Amino acid sequence: MSKKSKILLLHGAWHNGSCWANVQQLLKERGYESEALTLPGNGVNDSKNVTYDDYVNYVSETINKQEEPVIVVGHSSAGHVLQMAIPKAKEKVKKIIFNNAWLLPHGKSQFDYVPDEIKEGMRAMAKENGDGAIPIDIKFVRGMLATEASEECIQALMDKLVTQPLIIMETKINAIDFSQLDIPQVLLYCTKDKSVEPGAFLHMFKATGHDTVVEVECDHEGLFTNPKVYTEGLIKCIEL
Fold this sequence. Notes:
two-stranded antiparallel ribbon, 8 strands, Rossmann fold
């Protein structure tokens, strides 16, 4: 039996590596080694004075340090960070699994696809916060992210979430190098996601020219709110 590939897990906005703990335990029980990354600025005690290049360099350098090619999983805003980072580490990436991820066209930022009222509100909160980072609003978590979760689960998630440097939302990416990669890509699609218009993440993924999709009945926070169902879907993506 061939050795199973290591899995690198990359969180989205407001999250950090600790949000993957339940998924990591379930992967371990199935014989998979995993590592959950935390972007600069998203650690509990991190400075929020970071750049988008800090994200890209951290991710690409971590991938390049791996002994063997790995499978990389990106959730939500991690999508466009991986679009920038993986071309710098392509020899060490065996497969990419996007999970309801923001995949952007060349020259666009995540905020280019966010309603003006929401993004201006986030900018105002970041300015008021004093360090250029957006606080996490529990109403936003309840109403858009963890819509299938119990109140207890939502509170547990809130304990892990951190303020998010605004830079992740505002940076326009270079998607050209990523578009030229010949690496298998899969979408782990959480069908109960209400954080964007229905089908938006599916459209973003297929717009990159890929169409391999595994569906799971989870909300946007499935990795935390429904880890058993989420991990079963993730393993299907891994084993395709």
